[in-house]
Amino acid sequence: MFTNFFYELKDGGVPVSINEYLMLMEALQAGCTDYEIDQFYYLARSTFVKDEKNLDKFDRVFGKVFQGIEFIGEEAVEIPEEWLRKMAELHLTQEEMDEIEALGDWDKIMETLKKRLEEQEKRHQGGNKWIGTAGRSPFGAYGYNPEGVRIGQDKGRHGKAIKVWDKREFKNLDDSVELGTRNIKVALRKIRQFAREGEATELDLDDTIRSTAHKGYLDIKMVPERHNAVKILLFFDIGGSMDPHIKLCEELFSAARSEFKHLEFFYFHNCLYEGVWKDNKRRHNDTMPTMDVLHTYPHDYKVIIVGDASMSPYEIAYPGGSVEHWNEESGETWLRRLLSVYSKTIWLNPIPEKHWEYEQSIQMIKQLMENRMFPLSISGLEDAIKELRR
Q: Which fold, 181-191+230-389?
């Protein structure tokens, strides 16, 4: 199994050597870890991963090789608590869902949550009032309500929560992923504008011949390297409803990194607010103020925003509407600020265009973008590039 793991890591793009493999074997023989999968994971990761950019690749390979293994030993295996919790999930028919009414507007929901937190004294299962699980209350986990606050649940089930009261972890996009198609690169190349800037390091053959013939002796002429002068700011919506689109976003990210020398990227979640970040593992404590981005990168940058624009309308229109934190100013305010600085801005949406009319938030973002929203498809990307070149 360990030999197979080693070769899978190599095939998965993690730079590993036989020395690291032997080091892991020595650590296991010395008893540096018990026969628990979590302990072995951290031992193997510290042995094989020397650069944090390879953490996601390592995780994917580890999950593939050791899938389903929870414990290797003689002790009895307990049923995970999460399995039991899942059995308590509330499952309703569409007719039953339609019968449940929402509390009302944003202020009413937040006011009611504050009241419940003050009054509630114990855990609740089921029901339609208290903060609990498997109920019809607007607050809790594994239940159902048309609008509410999700508390204590790792992933969304119905996409109805207007706020999430949990710390969620997102992964960085892998910019080294192999493209499923070269068409993305071909489309991006249409935005290139070549220029020669900087130190003269490249032989100018035509000018050398011309000058040599004119002067009668060898006169070598050099010019700066020719490169794409277009500058790009790339904003990726990450996590939540964007998880199904990770592969497509990674293909776009990989293509953009290879095509543009002047490329800066940032992550955000659902809508642009007061802070963006570079590393999803540190997004809670290492963000860059959005205002600093607007002041750091000149107005001649072209901006590409990638996101499904699928969220609660409160996240766009209301202060405090963010699903994960309390934003002092609305997402609409921040998006307008971005557009006021960068006139060449487009939004790429991985959701097929035929579904856009059914999402209120998509229509709101599209209107704010003055219809400069394009599907993240080859034809949509080509139309988006034409918009950026105008």
A: Rossmann fold (3.40.50)
Distance CA 14, CA 164 (A): 34
Residue range 160-213, pLDDT digits in tens: 555 555 555 666 765 544 434 456 766 677 666 544 466 666 788 888 888 888
Residue partners of 38: CB distance under 8 A and separation at least 6:
none
User: pLDDT for 355-390, tens place per residue?
Assistant: 999 899 999 999 999 999 999 887 888 889 889 887
| Nearest residue to 86 via CA among 143, 48, 9 | 143
Neighbours of 257 (CB within 10 A): 14
- Structural contact between residues 2 and 24, judged by C-beta atoms closer than 8 angstroms: yes
User: Each residue of 111-155: pLDDT tens digit?
Assistant: 776 777 676 666 666 666 666 666 666 666 666 656 666 665 556
The H or E element containing residue 146 is none
Q: What residues does each domain of the chain span?
A: 80-151, 181-191+230-389, 194-226
Cα(323)–Cα(165) distance, integer angstroms: 8
